[in-house]
Amino acid sequence: MRAHRPASSLIERLVYDDDTRTLFVTFRAGRRYAYRDVPRTTYDALVGAPSAGAYFNAEVRDRFEGAPADGRRRYPLDERAA
């Protein structure tokens, strides 16, 4: 798993599972969603975008199947997100 904490007023944390191609997005408002079948290139572009919120709204939100994620599971941060 890969994780990133963007400098964003919308997104608190991003976690990407390479094995399942699932992008987990935790919003500053406290909700966590899982987006399925997200290519790794999309995650990488989201992490590198000047505005993570704008990129998410334009390229992820309505393009991939998303659903509320189970808030009980904790996802580890990797060294890039430290």
Salient structural properties:
82 residues, disordered C terminus, single chain, five-stranded antiparallel beta sheet, 2 helices, alpha+beta, 5 strands
Mean pLDDT: 88
Secondary-structure element string: EEEEHHE
Largest sheet: 5 strands, antiparallel
Terminus-to-terminus distance:
14 Å
What is the C-alpha radius of gyration, as a whole number of Å?
Answer: 11 Å
Overall form:
globular
Total strand segments = 5
Q: How helix-rich are the residues, as a percent range?
A: 10-25%
Task: Give me the secondary-structure category.
Answer: alpha+beta
Strand order of the largest sheet: 1-2-3-4-5
> DSSP strand (E) fraction?
25-35%
**Which regions have little confidence, pLDDT < 50, spanning 5+ residues?**
72-82
SS field, number of helical segments:
2
Explain what the structure shows.
With about 80 residues, the chain is an alpha+beta fold. About 20% of the residues lie in helices and about 30% in strands. It has helices at about 40-50, 50-60, and strands spanning about 1-5, 10-15, 20-25, 30-35, 65-70. Strands 1-2-3-4-5 form a 5-stranded antiparallel sheet, with helices on one face. A hairpin with a 6-residue loop joins strand 1 (about 1-5) and strand 2 (about 10-15).
Topology:
Blueprint: E1 2-4, E2 11-17, E3 22-27, E4 32-35, H1 40-48, H2 52-59, E5 66-68
What is the compact description of this entry?
This protein has 82 residues and is α+β, with helices and mostly antiparallel strands. It has two helices and five strands.
